Amino acid sequence: MDAAPVAANDQEREQHRPASLSPETLARTLRAVAAELERDPELARRISGAIAGPEAPPSDTALRQPTSEHGDTGNTDEGDKDDERVATRQKRSTFRPRLITGASPDLGPGIPDPFTLQAKRGEEGLRAALEELRLGTLRAIVREHHLDPEGKLTRQNDAARLRVLILEAVARNHD
Amino acid sequence: MAAICIANNKGGVGKTTTAVNLAAGLARLNYRVLVVDVDGQANATYALTGRVHPVPSLYDVLVGDRKLESVIWQTNEENVWLVPGDGRLQNADVELAARPGREWRLAKALHGQNYDYIIIDTPPSLGVLTQNALAASHRVLIPISLTEFSLIGMDKLEATIEDLRDQLDLYDLEIAGVVATFYENTTTANDTWGILEKKYEGRVLETRIPKNLDLEKAHRENESILSFAPTSSGGQAYTQLAREVKRLVPAQPRPYDRRRSQTA
User: Fold this and answer.
1) Largest CA distance in chain B
2) Which residue is closest to B75 within chain A, CA to CA?
3) Which of 3.30.505.10, 3.40.50.720, 3.90.1150.10, 3.40.50.300 is the CATH number of B2-263?
4) Global ipTM
């Protein structure tokens, strides 16, 4: 951050300077601070957090992109137009590591069959099994069992809606 | 049938990402593709199925006596099948070391398989497993990240391929090309690209795979970029790569049959 330069021969004047800054110095300093805040969003976030006070947790809500339960950004025509923007947001967001345990070995090889799972485990068992599965596997189940003939839902990156679709289809079949 | 080995002894250059997404790209060109996960980290297995270190796997085929057919899985990608890997493969180099014909076990296991393409994902090493992958392949595709240290060690991979050609009589094993990954329009990346073009004159693929967060997200969601974000920069690049690979390494209309005697 640029500070107002103070010449060595101005030392005496400095000693006699009143506590308040001159309007010019204040304006110059604030302009420098503003420029730095615009350049460095992380600094802006920290300062914003400090102004909010220690009792308030540092808020990065405004900086965080809307995410689904998997943290995806939807089908990313939009997202990929500006990877740099997304990357910058990603850096700012809190990293939340996740232990990858994968889907249960009980599901057997290949694409799980929700009808078999319902028969073996009941509705709650099926629901629990689907909760473990991620978008790709859910989409594959829908595709393999022709649960979305028009393919509208399958093209969306929305795991929750795919789970509902699968549960409804299995329930219909059960009835 | 054409078998393509995705190899580079360096880690983190995009081998698995390339294997998974190239397979999906070829599948979208109406080819039947078998991915073989030779890497003990089994990341391709996770990316295509959501399973972590499933058993049985390729390990049981290479080290045990299980038939390959019994470990072929349908994946989350249409027209893509998988021979999964698991963590035990990390010990397979040692376990296979003393076996006669150890470099040919994968080729032997694949005999008779009837896919248009076999894509083999390899570990970041040049041990027995990678040798199996190379011996089982017709062509090698080398992903190279356009980063500062990416060119270190490249000569080692080429030397290994040359050695294998001599030792195993793999006279028809060729480098199909070098594909640049993690591309960003920076001075370092463009300079590295320039060096690659000089070093691998005529063999650097036109497609450059960009650095793209969606590629990572797609792995996390257990699917290819072509399912997760087909219009993303990564999705478009892998669509283009599949077309380029199809042109460079055409699928042959006959079942897999690759033995030592044939290549001599």
Assistant:
1) 51
2) A110
3) 3.40.50.300
4) 0.92
